[in-house]
Amino acid sequence: MQRRYPEVKVAVTAAAMMLTGTCAFAQSSVTLYGIVDAGLGYQSSSTSLGSTSGGHSAFKMINGVWAGSRFGLKGAEELGGGTKAIFTLEEGFNSATGAMATNNLMFSRQAFVGLSNPTFGSFTAGRQYASYYQLLSAYSPTTWLTGYFGAHPGDLDGLDTGYRTNNTLLYMSPVIYGFKFSGSYSFAGVPGSVNQGSSWAAAIQYAQGPVGLAVGFSRINNSTPGGGAFGADSATSNAGAQAGVSAVTNGYQTAQAQQRFAVGAGYTFNSQFDVTATYTNVQYIPGINSLFRSEQIWNTGGIVLHWKPSPTWDFAGGYSYTRATTANGISSSAQYQQFNLSQYYSLSKRTGVYVLEAYTRANGQTLATNGKSIINATATIGDGFNTTPSSSRSMVAVGAGVVHRF
C-alpha cells in the first residue's frame, strides 16, 4: 500500500516541461516513483476456483505482496491562489515475469487528472479508488498484514486496492476540525440508463490526536440488465473482469448489485503500539437473471495489533471473523476465521524484507459456481489466493520477500 511509505521523489525539470507542456515560468513538477516487490510463498492446498477436491500444496514465486509492484508519474502545476492542476498515472506489473498487472490496461492502478486547493479540497476525474476505500484504508488490515495475505478472506469488503473504478468523478474535502469527507460517482455510459453499471460511494473520516474513525458506503451495479454475467461496461471492470471473485463470493458473482458498509477505527497508544479494528456488512443483491435467488449478506469483524519496538522492526498480528446469512437453501451459513502474523525489517529508508504467516478455517456451506448447488465452504486467505483457494476447509500460507521503493 503506497500510503505506508514516503515516496522518494525525483524532480526532473526537463521532463516536467515535456510531459506537462507548461511555460518556462510556470511552477510545475513531475515525480517519478515506484515499488518492486518479489519473494517466495507456500500454501498448504491449492486448487482452481470453484473446486472442492484435488488440492495440492504449492511452493512458488510471489510478487507484489507487501506492496504491489508499480511505477508511476505524479504531476502538479501551480495555477494561482493555492490552486493546482494535478495528475497521476500508475501502472502495476508482475515483478516475476514483467507482465502487466492487468492485461490490456496500460495504467491499471490509477489514471486521473484534477484540481486541488487547500481551502476547497480536490476534484479528480479518471480511473481511481472510490471514496469508500480512500477514507477507510487507514484502518484496513492490509496496512500491516498486506492485502495478499491479510485482507479479509477474498477481500470481500473491498478494504484492499482491488476495487478501482473507471470513469470516476471524486471530491475530497480538506480537513475541517479533524473531519474529512468524500464522495465519488462512476459512470458506466450504458445507452438508455444512468444507473446500469454505475458505481457510487461516500465516506467520512475523523482523525484527531491518537483517535481515528471512518464510516463508508459503496454500491456497485452490474451493467448486465437484471444481473447475470458481469458486464464489461461496469464501472469496476478490470478489462472486462469482475474484481473480488473468490471462494467466498464465487457462487454469487452474477449479482445485479453489490453494497458495502464499513466502519473502521484506530487508536495510537504511543510511538511503538497502535490498534485498528473494522466492521463491514456486504450484500450481493440478485436480479431476475442472477443464478442465485435470495440476497446474500456477509458480516465481518477484524482487529490488528501493530508493534514497532525499534526504528527498523515492525510486527503485527490480526484476526477476522466472517459469517454469511442463511439464504438460497443453505441451512448452515458459511463462516471464515483468519489469523495473520507479519514481520518487517527495514534495511534502509527505501528497502525492507518481510515474512508473513496466515491461516484460515472455513465452516458451513456456500453456493457452487453455478449459483444453485450447495457445497462445503472452502478456505482462502487474503486476496492473493483468490484464484487458487484451498480445496478443503483449512489453509496455511507463508511468504517471505524483499521490497524496494524508488
Automatic annotation (TrEMBL):
Main location: membrane
Complexes and interactors: Homotrimer.
GO molecular function per UniProt: porin activity
UniProt key word Kinase: no
Domain Porin: 14-364
Subcellular localization: Cell outer membrane
Keywords: Cell outer membrane, Ion transport, Membrane, Plasmid, Porin, Signal, Transmembrane, Transmembrane beta strand, Transport
PANTHER family listed in its UniProt record: MAJOR OUTER MEMBRANE PROTEIN P.IA, PROTEIN YDDL-RELATED
Domain of life the protein comes from: Bacteria
Family matches, as Pfam families: Porin_4 (PF13609)
Signal sequence range: 1-26
InterPro entries to which the protein is assigned, alphabetical: Gram-neg_bact_OMP (IPR050298), Gram_neg_porin_domain (IPR033900), Porin_dom_sf (IPR023614), Porin_Gram-ve (IPR001702), Porin_Neis (IPR002299)
Organism (species): Paraburkholderia phymatum (strain DSM 17167 / CIP 108236 / LMG 21445 / STM815) (Burkholderia phymatum)
GO biological process: monoatomic ion transmembrane transport
Topological type in the membrane: Multi-pass membrane protein
GO annotation, cellular component aspect: cell outer membrane; pore complex
Record's protein name: Porin Gram-negative type
Cited Gene3D superfamilies: Porin (2.40.160.10)
Methyltransferase in keyword set: no
